[in-house]
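Figure 2 data, in text form.
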Amino acid sequence: MKLIEITPEIVQLTRFGLVNCFLVREDDGLTLVDTMVKGSANGIYTAASTLNRSMRRILLTHVHMDHVGSLDVLSQQLNGVEVAVGRRESRFLTRDFHTEPGEAANKVRGSFSKVETIPSALLSDGEHYGSLMVVATPGHTPGHLSFYDPRSGTLIAGDALTSVGGLRVSGDGPAMFPLANWATWHQPTALASARKLAALEPKKIVVGHGMPIVANASQALKEAVRHAE
């Protein structure tokens, strides 16, 4: 498990050089954003221990299997940990993959593993969860969330964006990394969400797959939007 300190508040954990999750420092401990693939729990737990803080919360951008793979193990190990997910996204945990009125009728794509953990908090656009602002970014999935940390201007974009081979909007990734494209539910919606993220003018961007964007992040995101357009 590779650790990269993005800001004093955010540490990126990377497995296989491709799959990321994040530890966010709060006054009372740590918030874990996403849980990687199955078998990552021990590495995440060890990484958190090096920061000398306890994990208090688990926060999910969305519930594809590479983001919730270690959720059940961690929630069992961390007795009493709060688990938060988007209100819309939570339906997929119950295997309800129907689209809702007002959403594109496209079939929801990607792999969803069976999860036993029941979320204790359901989030909506504009709320704050600890220090993080919740930003609804549907497109990759109908209920995908991103999180913005105003302390450093850092955007945790999940799979709304990827950065393998350069920053791109989900569904518009390069041929060298087609997986996020294949798993994207509705690319026009993903593009609209990317425009919403660009309006935040983030100083740094971290994503579920790829390297952090720590220089000229806002400009890189605007260029990604133009490419998708």
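Caption note: The first strand starts at residue 2 and ends at 5.
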